[in-house]
Specification:
- With 479 residues, this protein is an alpha/beta fold.
- It has two domains: 204 residues, Rossmann fold; 181 residues, P-loop containing nucleotide triphosphate hydrolases (Rossmann fold, 3-Layer(aba) Sandwich).
- It is 44% helix and 14% strand.
- It is built from 23 helices and 14 strands.
- Strands 3-4-2-5-6-1-7 form a seven-stranded parallel beta sheet, sandwiched between helices. A seven-stranded parallel beta sheet has the order 10-11-9-12-13-8-14, with helices on both faces.
- α5 links the parallel β3 and β4.
- α3 packs across α4, α11 crosses α23 and α16 packs across α22.
- The structure holds adenosine monophosphate (AMP).
- The site of adenosine monophosphate has 14 residues, from α3.
- The site of adenosine monophosphate (AMP) has 14 residues, from α3.
- Its EC number is 3.6.4.13.
- It catalyses: ATP + H2O = ADP + phosphate + H(+).
- It is an enzyme of class 3 (hydrolase).
Length: 479
C-alpha cells in the first residue's frame, strides 16, 4: 500500500515524499482513511510506530479544507509532556509546508504571554499539555467552542501522570459535535471508560508494540554491583566507541551525578531531566542531536517518546522499576529499521524488576556475568559503609537508593511525579491510588508474557538475538 492509496491530498503526498517516506506504517494505513472520513478513532500504538503522522497527516488535510475566521483554536492535541508536544509541532511543520496552517504550542516552562498572544489571533492547531491548558481556562484566556477535532495522545501516559480528570474536564469544554482521536499504548479500564464517554462509535485500530517485537535491538543484562556500575558503564561505552547513546537512570539525582562523573572521565555527555527548565532541556537535546556530545543521560519522563535519529545504544544504568519503562527506554534505539543495542546493568537487588520485564516482553534477556564481578557476599558487604566519604564513593559508582516513605512497592513514585512538577501551575490532585489499581488490572497481557516464557523454560538460558559478543568478556573481565 502507498500513501497515495490513503486519500491524502497531492500537497501532503509531496510533503511525505520530501520527508523521505515511501510506505505508510501499519498504524498509518489503518488510521488515515477513517480519520479523513471524519470518524472517531482509538489507536492502540506507541511511539516508534509512526503514530504521530497517523493523526497529523489527515488533520492537515481536514484543517486545510475549511477555514473559519473565529478567533479560537480549530483543533486541539493533548500531549502528556512538553517534549512530546514540541515533537508533534515539528511534525506539523514538516508535513504542513504546503498548507500554511497556524499553530500554537501551550506548554509549561515557557512564557505564557507569547502563547496567549498567539491564541488571541486564532489558530488552526493548538498543541497543549493538560496542566498549562487548564491554567489558561482558570484565567479565562481560552475558549474551545470552535474546536471540532480533538486528539488525546499517549492516554496511558496521561493516566500515569494523573491527568485524566483534567482531560475529562477539557472534553466537556469542546463542542459535542466533534471528531475525537485517542492514542494509547495500552488500554487499561480507565482509558476504556474515557473512550466510551467521549468518543462516538470509534474505529479501533491496533498495532504491535514495536520494542517487544523489534528484533533489531540486541539486549543484554550485565550483572554487576552498585559500587562498580559507573566503571562498567564507562567500559561498555569505550569498548564500542559509542557516538550516540542514551543512558537511563531511575532518579534525577542519579542523572545529574552520573553525567558529572562521565564528564570527569572524558566522556562527552549531557543530561536531561524534569528539574531542568524547558530552554535548558532543549539546549541539551540539541547538543546531543548535533553530535556535540555522544551520550545523553536521561530520566524516564524527560526522555519519553523522544525521537532522536541514529541512537545506537541504550544503557539502563538502573533497571527500571516499571517493565513498561524498559520497553519505552530500549525503543529509543533500533528505530526505523536500524540496529540497536540495549544494556541493562543489574545488581542482585534488581531480580524482581528483571523478572517483571521478562514476563511482560515474553523474552529472557541474555545475561552476562562479568569475570571479576563481585560475589553475592561482596555485594552484600557494599551495603555496610554508609559513612564513607562521598568523594571516595563517587568514582566507584555508588549511589544509595532513596527509600520511599511509603515503602519498597511504591519506590517508583518520585519519578512518576516528575512532569507534574514540570507543569508549574498545576496542583497535585492526589488521585494516583485508584489509577495504580487499574494499572495492575492489566494482568491478561502480562499473563500472556509469562506463558510464553514458561514454554521456553527448558530451553537454553540465552534469549534474544544471538550470542554474547566476545568483547564483553574480554573488555570487562579486565576490570
Ligand atoms: P512516531 O511513532 O510518531 O514517534 O514515529 C517514529 C518515527 O518514524 C519518526 O522518526 C517518524 O519520522 C518516522 N516515520 C513516521 N512515518 C514513517 C513512514 N511512513 N516511513 C518511515 N518512517 C516513518
Amino acid at each position: 500500500m502507498s500513501f497515495a492509496d490513503l486519500g491524502l491530498s497531492d500537497e501532503l503526498l509531496r510533503a511525505v515524499t520530501d520527508a523521505g517516506y515511501t510506505e505508510p506504517t501499519p498504524i498509518q494505513q489503518q488510521s488515515i482513511p477513517p480519520v479523513l472520513m471524519g470518524k472517531d478513532l482509538i489507536g492502540i500504538a506507541q511511539t516508534g510506530t509512526g503514530k504521530t503522522a497517523a493523526f497529523v497527516l489527515p488533520m492537515i488535510d481536514i484543517l486545510g479544507e475549511g477555514r473559519t475566521r473565529a478567533l479560537m483554536p480549530r483543533s486541539l492535541i493533548l500531549e502528556p509532556t512538553r517534549e512530546l508536544a514540541a515533537q508533534v509541532a515539528e511534525n506539523f511543520e514538516k508535513y504542513g509546508t504546503h498548507h500554511k496552517l497556524s499553530m500554537a504550542l501551550l506548554i509549561g516552562g515557557v512564557q505564557m504571554g507569547d502563547q496567549v498572544k498567539a491564541l488571541e489571533k486564532g489558530v488552526d492547531v493548538l498543541i497543549a499539555t493538560p496542566g498549562r491548558l487548564m491554567d489558561l481556562f482558570g484565567r479565562g484566556k481560552i475558549l474551545l467552542n470552535g474546536c471540532s477535532l480533538l486528539v488525546i495522545d499517549e492516554a496511558d501516559r496521561m493516566l500515569d501522570m494523573g491527568f485524566i480528570p483534567d482531560i475529562e474536564e477539557i472534553c466537556t469544554k469542546l463542542p459535542k459535535e466533534r471528531q475525537t482521536l485517542l492514542f494509547s499504548a495500552t488500554m487499561p479500564p480507565v482509558i476504556k471508560k474515557l473512550a466510551d464517554k467521549f468518543l462516538n462509535d470509534p474505529k479501533r485500530v491496533e498495532v504491535a508494540r514495536p520494542a517487544t517485537t523489534n528484533t533489531n535491538i540486541t539486549q543484554f543484562l550485565i550483572e554487576t554491583s552498585t559500587m562498580k556500575k559507573r566503571e562498567v558503564l564507562r567500559a561498555l561505552i569505550e569498548a564500542e566507541n559509542v557516538q550516540t547513546g542514551i543512558i537511563f537512570c531511575n532518579r534525577k539525582t542519579t542523572v545529574r551525578e552520573l553525567n558529572k562523573s562521565l564528564q570527569r572521565h572524558g566522556i562527552r555527555s549531557a543530561e536531561i531531566h524534569g528539574d531542568m527548565d524547558q530552554p535548558a532541556r532543549i539546549a541539551e537535546l540539541e547538543r546531543f542531536k548535533r553530535g556535540d556530545v555522544n551520550i545523553l543521560v536521561a530520566s524516564d519522563v524527560a526522555a519519553r517518546g523522544l525521537d532522536i535519529k541514529g541512537v545506537s545504544h541504550v544503557y539502563n544504568f538502573d533497571a527500571p522499576w516499571h517493565p513498561d519503562d524498559y520497553v519505552h527506554r530500549i525503543g529509543r534505539t533500533g528505530r526505523a529499521g536500524a540496529k540497536g543495542t540495549a544494556y541493562t546493568l543489574v545488581t542482585k537487588e534488581d531480580a524482581e524488576n528483571i523478572a517483571n520485564i521478562e514476563k511482560l516482553t515474553g523474552h529472557k534477556i541474555n545475561r552476562v556475568k562479568l569475570k571479576g564481578a563481585p560475589t553475592a557476599s561482596e555485594d552484600e558487604h557494599e551495603e555496610a559503609p554508609r559513612g564513607r566519604k562521598r568523594k571516595a564513593d563517587e568514582d566507584k559508582g555508588a549511589e544509595r537508593p532513596e527509600r520511599s516513605p511509603r515503602g519498597k512497592a511504591r519506590k517508583a513514585e518520585p519519578e512518576r511525579d516528575e512532569d507534574r512538577r514540570e507543569e508549574p501551575f498545576r496542583e497535585p490532585r492526589g488521585r494516583e491510588e485508584p489509577y495504580r489499581e487499574t494499572r495492575r488490572d492489566e494482568q491478561p497481557r502480562r499473563d500472556r508474557g509469562s506463558r510464553r516464557r514458561d514454554e521456553r523454560d527448558d530451553g537454553p538460558d540465552v534469549g534474544w538475538n544471538g550470542p554474547i559478543p566476545d568483547f564483553l568478556n574480554y573488555t570487562l573481565a579486565a576490570e
